[in-house]
């Protein structure tokens, strides 16, 4: 440690140069990071919809139609010609329209009405388009250009294209709002005009390095791209604040800044590591999810915390020593200082606060398990072109969602019977199959392009349309009935489509929820056990933060609003890992004070001393969540931000209101069940240090 601290303080210019070079290289690499916008890609490889989609690509050369393209003011002839032009757009692998299931030489009036209305209404054509993964943005732009921006484009691929165009600009926009707000918070809660910029520089370098090194992961999810930089910045700023506070204290004790920084690094090394460990373990729990989004986000956040820790321990000391003259010149008196009476106020209300928590905790725990969940990206944002186009398409042709069933080829009778049964399922508006729709015409008399829509060498394809949304009770009930019907006629059958994907996602992430939550709690419990060497304190601290999480996640149930399940799953571990530090800080202070004073005065002193630190950290994390929630057009990201902001405020409230009561109530038990607690036994001898 001595060698490390001396190397940092003696070669500060080299250290600064190395980190800045790494940051610049990483900034260039960010452009090469591939971002995946399809949540269904993170389903396990053995889920039915994933297997079905792979089979579809192998047999038919394209996936499920994932885009609805509506173009007005066309004749049938013009619509047929436009179909061929859309098929030629780069990234488009398939287009289905009326001419794939009906002979256009037949008058429209004698065609099947339900089939016609699926594709043609009052001079407006609706095309079911399949766009290849990774080509969404280019293909959608090409279709807009082809139709002179007359087209309205909806569907999963259009949603992906919208996200591709927005996600980077939104992250930058959120940071441009969040960083100035964080600077203001730090300016009013610290005693130097320049130190907030040093904090943000140290963490900012780590954030950019983290984002750039994602290029070695192959690709990351859009959730990780949107959330990780904001989370890393907000969660790890505490480390920088702690180090510079220690540096300031030691400068009053030793003659040189270099010696003060070496002492600060030694003092902070283990304490910041302990703080980072709880956050790290909370994020690590995400990596145990079968749903790949968890591992993607968890690995990125873990990497970010490690890089932030290294930056604070190495880069920030060198940068601070280089700017020490500016630090001296920019000192100021505290703008916000809670005062000594604050601890007395919180202690006075501890019992009513604890009673309120105990009355709420059971109903909130039950409520958060009964909320209505969404498993996809949520509803389209009406502020975007995609949101406006989707609304226009739904107004004209109605809500439509398709499923594709693959069955072995060679039994047209079973195929026709299955198609007939599928048509009778509630919410199914149309069923297209060779045997059921065009089978009256022998294969040899049909154009190969029509036959190939329904038959490969080994499989038959049945396409059905529903009037449900992509997810929800009705959509999932249709998936269950379709799969059950297919199994009646075939020993092998596969169902895919967005509803089937989300149905499988629901099963996977619901199973993940309990596992991930218990792993996070287990990791953090062991960390607390080692930190405090106590059998009572880990239970108290985890109860305090878990109660805040349950209250947070119960709000959607009581407000009767659906909750994006990924937000529910992630916030369980993120809120626990990110805010348990507040409880640790308070408990550390209490344990130290309890050795020289009684429990009431120990709690008062701890609250008065540490409230400012909790307030600073909590406000920055809350600001990060609000920026995500209010600025992101991606519902899954925005909802995670709102959960983070609300959860942070609740955790802060629990730490300053309920935790003091629990520490005092269980004080005698903690004294007996904590290794070398050293609590003052005679309150008469306590010392008031306020």
Based on Cα principal axes, name the global outline: elongated
Q: Which residues sit in consecutive blocks of at least 5 with pLDDT less than 50?
A: 684-690
CATH architecture of the largest domain: Up-down Bundle
The multimeric state of the shown protein is single chain
Structural class computed from helices and strand pairing: alpha+beta
Number of domains: 4
Instruction: Quickly name the level 1 CATH class of the largest domain.
Output: Mainly Alpha
Percent of residues in beta strands: 5-15%
In total, how many beta strands? 13
Count of DSSP H/I helices: 25
Could you please say which CATH topology of the largest domain applies here?
Answer: Multidrug efflux transporter AcrB transmembrane fold
Over the alpha carbons, how many angstroms does the gyration radius reach? 30 Å
Q: What would the keywords be for this entry?
A:
690 residues; alpha+beta; Multidrug efflux transporter AcrB transmembrane fold; Alpha-Beta Plaits; 4 domains; five-stranded antiparallel β-sheet; four-stranded antiparallel β-sheet; elongated; disordered C terminus
């Amino acid at each position: 440690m001595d060698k490390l601290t001396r190397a940092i303080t003696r070669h500060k210019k080299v250290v600064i140069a190395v980190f800045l070079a790494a940051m610049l290289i990483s900034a260039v690499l960010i452009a090469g990071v591939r971002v995946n916008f399809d949540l269904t890609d993170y389903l396990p490889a053995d889920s039915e919809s994933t297997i079905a989609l792979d089979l579809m690509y192998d047999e038919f050369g394209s996936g499920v139609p994932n885009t609805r393209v509506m173009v007005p003011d066309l004749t049938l002839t013009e619509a047929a010609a436009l179909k061929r032009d859309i098929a030629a757009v780069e990234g488009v692998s398939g287009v289905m329209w009326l001419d794939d299931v009906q002979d256009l030489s037949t008058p429209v009036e004698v065609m099947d009405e339900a089939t016609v209305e699926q594709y043609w209404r009052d001079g407006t054509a609706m095309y079911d388009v399949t766009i290849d993964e990774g080509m969404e943005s280019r293909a959608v732009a090409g279709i807009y250009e082809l139709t002179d921006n007359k087209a309205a484009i909806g569907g999963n691929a259009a949603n992906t294209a919208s996200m591709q165009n927005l996600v980077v600009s939104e992250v930058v926009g959120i940071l441009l709002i969040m960083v100035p707000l964080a600077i203001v918070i730090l300016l009013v809660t610290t005693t130097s005009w320049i130190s907030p910029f040093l904090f943000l520089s140290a963490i900012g370098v780590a954030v950019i390095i983290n984002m750039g090194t994602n290029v070695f992961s192959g690709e990351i999810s859009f959730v990780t791209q949107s959330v990780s930089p904001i989370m890393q910045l907000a969660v790890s700023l505490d480390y920088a604040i702690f180090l510079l506070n220690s540096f300031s204290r030691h400068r009053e004790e030793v003659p040189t800044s270099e010696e003060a920084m070496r002492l600060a690094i030694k003092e902070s090394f283990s304490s910041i590591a302990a703080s980072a460990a709880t956050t790290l373990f909370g994020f690590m729990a995400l990596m145990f999810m079968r749903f790949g989004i968890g591992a993607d986000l968890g690995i990125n956040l873990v990497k970010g915390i490690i890089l932030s820790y290294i930056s604070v321990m190495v880069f920030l000391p060198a940068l601070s020593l280089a700017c020490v003259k500016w630090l001296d010149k920019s000192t100021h008196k505290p703008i916000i200082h809670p005062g000594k009476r604050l601890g007395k106020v919180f202690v006075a209300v501890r019992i009513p606060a604890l009673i309120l928590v105990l009355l709420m905790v059971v109903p909130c725990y039950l409520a958060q398990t009964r909320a209505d969940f969404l498993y996809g990206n949520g509803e389209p944002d009406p502020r975007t072109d995609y949101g406006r186009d989707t609304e226009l398409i739904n107004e004209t042709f109605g809500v439509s969602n398709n499923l594709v069933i693959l069955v072995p080829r060679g039994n047209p009778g079973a195929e026709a019977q299955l198609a007939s049964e599928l048509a009778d399922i509630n919410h199914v508006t149309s069923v297209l199959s060779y045997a059921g729709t065009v089978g009256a015409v022998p294969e040899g008399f049909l154009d190969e392009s029509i036959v190939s829509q329904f038959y490969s060498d080994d499989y038959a394809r049945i396409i059905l349309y529903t009037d449900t949304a992509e997810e929800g009770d009705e959509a999932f009930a249709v998936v269950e009935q379709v799969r059950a019907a297919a199994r009646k006629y075939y020993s092998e059958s596969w169902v895919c489509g967005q509803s089937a994907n989300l149905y499988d996602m629901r099963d996977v992430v619901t199973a993940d929820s309990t596992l991930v939550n218990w792993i996070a709690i287990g990791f953090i419990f062991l960390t607390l056990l080692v930190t405090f060497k106590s059998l009572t304190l880990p239970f108290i601290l985890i109860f305090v933060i878990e109660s805040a999480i349950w209250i947070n996640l119960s709000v959607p149930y009581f407000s009767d609003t659906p909750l994006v399940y990924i937000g529910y799953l992630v916030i369980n571990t993120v809120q626990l890992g990110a805010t348990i530090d507040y409880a640790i800080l308070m408990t550390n202070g209490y344990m130290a004070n309890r050795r020289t004073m009684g429990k009431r005065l120990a709690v008062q002193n701890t609250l008065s001393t540490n409230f400012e630190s909790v307030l600073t950290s909590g406000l920055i994390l809350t600001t990060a969540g609000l920026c995500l929630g209010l600025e992101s057009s991606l519902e899954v990201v925005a909802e995670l931000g709102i959960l983070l902001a609300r959860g942070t405020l609740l955790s802060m409230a629990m730490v300053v209101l309920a935790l003091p009561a629990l520490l005092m109530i269980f004080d005698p038990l903690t004294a007996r069940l904590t290794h070398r607690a050293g609590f003052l036994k005679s309150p008469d001898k306590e010392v008031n240090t306020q």
